[in-house]
Specification:
The protein is of the alpha/beta class and 209 residues long. The chain has six helices and 14 strands. The strands form five sheets. Strands 1-12-10-8-4-5 form a six-stranded parallel sheet, with helices on both faces. It has a two-stranded antiparallel ribbon with strand order 2-3.
Length: 209
C-alpha cells in the first residue's frame, strides 16, 4: 500500500496559509508555490541512494558522499503542474522534464490524453508527478497510468493540497506510488473543489478565470 506523506514543515504551513487567502496576487501565489515546491523536494529526495567518492579538499584527500546515479524526471500535469517545476529544478537542475495533458471526455467520462512528451529514458528515472491539487484523484491517477505505460517503476506523486477522496483513489489504483502533500484538507464540495482549499490553482497561477 502506498504511503501518504504530510510535509508540514512550519515554513511550508506559513507559506500555504498565505496562498490560500483570496487576497493573494497571482505574482505572490506563483512565488510561494515555487518556494514550497523546493522545500517539499528536500523531503521527496531524502531517500536517494549515495555512493562513496574520493575527492581532494584544500587540506587532504577524503572519502565523501555523492548521489549514486539516481536520475530524476519531473512530470507536471498541465497546466497547473507547471507552477511546481521551477522549484524542483532549482533543487535538482539536472532533472529532465516531461509533460502530460489530460481531459475527461464529457460523453464517456474516460480520460483523453491531448499531450504527452517524455524524456527518452523516462523508464530509467525516478519520476516525480506534480499537480498542486489532488481533488478527485482522477487526473493524477490517469497520468500515473500513462507514465507506467512508458515502463516507469519508481514514481511518487507530489501535490500542494489533497482531499481524502483523491488520496484514496490514487492509493487504490496505484498502491505502489507514494503521495507527498503539504496539506490534507477536509473534503470535496459538490463541484469537486477541495474544502477549504485555495480555489483553482491554474487560474491563480496564471491570472485567468
Amino acid at each position: 500500500m502506498s504511503t501518504f506523506h504530510l510535509v508540514d514543515h512550519p515554513l511550508i504551513q506559513h507559506k500555504l496559509t498565505i496562498m490560500r487567502s483570496v487576497n493573494t496576487s497571482s505574482k505572490d501565489f506563483r512565488e510561494l508555490l515555487n518556494e514550497i515546491s523546493m522545500l517539499m523536494g528536500y523531503e521527496i529526495t531524502r531517500e536517494l541512494p549515495l555512493r562513496d567518492c574520493e575527492i581532494e579538499t584544500p587540506i587532504c584527500r577524503t572519502t565523501q558522499k555523492k548521489i549514486s546515479g539516481k536520475k530524476l524526471a519531473i512530470v507536471p500535469i498541465l497546466r497547473a503542474g507547471l507552477g511546481m517545476v521551477d522549484g524542483l529544478m532549482k533543487l535538482v537542475p539536472v532533472a529532465r522534464v516531461g509533460h502530460i495533458g489530460l481531459y475527461r471526455d464529457p460523453q464517456t467520462h474516460m480520460p483523453v490524453t491531448y499531450y504527452c512528451k517524455m524524456p527518452p529514458d523516462i523508464d530509467k528515472r525516478f519520476v516525480i508527478m506534480v499537480d498542486p491539487m489532488l481533488a478527485t484523484g482522477g487526473s493524477m491517477s490517469d497520468a500515473i497510468a500513462k507514465v507506467k505505460e512508458k515502463g516507469c517503476k519508481h514514481i511518487v506523486a507530489m501535490c500542494l493540497v489533497a482531499a481524502p477522496e483523491g488520496v484514496a483513489r490514487v492509493q487504490k489504483e496505484h498502491p505502489d506510488v507514494d503521495i507527498y502533500s503539504a496539506a490534507l484538507d477536509e473534503k470535496l464540495n459538490e463541484n469537486a473543489y477541495i474544502v477549504p482549499g485555495l480555489g483553482d490553482a491554474g487560474d491563480r497561477i496564471f491570472g485567468t478565470k
